[in-house]
Specification:
heterodimer; A: alpha/beta; Rossmann fold; five-stranded parallel beta sheet; 5 strands; 42% helix; B: alpha+beta; Chemotaxis protein chec; seven-stranded antiparallel beta sheet; 7 strands; globular
Chain lengths: 120, 151
């Protein structure tokens, strides 16, 4: 399994990667990174990850814009948001564009695992 | 709902515990930073139906400790860029959680980070609506919500 972690914060990418590496559900997965939505879009096209975990608010291209661009390009990896903002409107928007889950920051490995359980 | 100091306290404690493994305890004695300390400020702005900013302020010493925890490094291995990234992300998470409590169409800015000694944080046309001082291991973390008066 290949997982792409997209976040403009290197610190948050490190935390998401550390949380993933503690989960049996994704044991042995290769984890790759991108620092914004545009880079994430390019990485999805180049690397074909099975799962994308993306922040929402990023420079260049936001997470939801990246998801829209992937949909328009006909590329549909399993996609979930890991974001500090979590309103009902964002949940609806994410779901409407095909995101499988939205994990709110701060999160724990358990809450991430629970979100992943319904998606992969 | 307008977030209160108590909400800010809960948000701060949750973020620091989950993301850094650091316990923050609220101080109700007006604790602040020593004027000689170098203080790092992370700030995000919220615009739309509610306008203002949310800031996180901590000493450079604690910012280095926080960055070391985030990156799983020793404190003396942490770079300035990693400290800035960490404080920016702490502000982003705090501001994002505050935004989630507010109503209406809102946008959260990307974080900005600054550091120095003896400076004052102000947002033109805004006043402070909530402020909490929290402590870990003798180090103070200040969390503040500033609201613009024009909206």
């Amino acid at each position: 399994m290949k997982i792409l972690v997209v976040d403009d914060s290197k610190a948050m990418r490190a935390i998401v990667k550390r949380a993933l590496s503690s989960l049996d559900r994704v044991a042995g997965a290769t984890i790759i990174e991108a620092a914004d939505g545009k880079e994430g879009f390019d990485q999805v096209k180049a690397e074909s990850p099975d799962l994308v975990l993306s922040d929402w608010n990023m420079p260049e291209m936001t997470g939801i814009e990246m998801l829209q661009a992937l949909n328009e390009a006909g590329i549909t990896p399993t996609f979930g948001f890991v974001t500090s903002e979590s309103t009902p409107e964002m949940h609806e928007l994410a779901k409407a564009h095909g995101a499988r889950f939205l994990v709110s920051k701060p999160f724990t490995p358990d809450s991430l695992d629970q979100a992943l359980s319904g998606a992969i | 709902m307008e977030p209160t100091a108590l909400d800010l306290e809960r948000i701060g404690a949750d973020i620091w515990a989950a993301m850094l493994g650091i316990e923050l305890v609220a101080k109700h004695d007006g604790a602040s930073h020593d004027p000689d300390d170098r203080v790092v400020t992370g700030l995000v702005q919220i615009t739309g139906a509610w306008e203002g900013a949310v800031s996180v302020q901590l000493t450079e010493r604690l910012a280095i400790t926080a960055a070391a925890s985030m990156f799983a490094l020793e404190p003396d291995e942490v770079t300035e860029e990693e400290v800035t990234d960490t404080v920016g992300e702490l502000a982003n998470m705090t501001g994002g959680n505050v935004k989630s409590m507010l109503e209406g169409e809102l946008q959260l800015s990307l974080p900005s980070v600054t550091s120095g000694r003896q400076y004052t944080l102000s947002l033109p046309g805004a006043h402070q609506t909530a402020r909490v001082a929290m402590e870990t291991d003798g180090e103070v973390v200040l969390l503040t919500i500033l609201k613009r008066d024009t909206v």
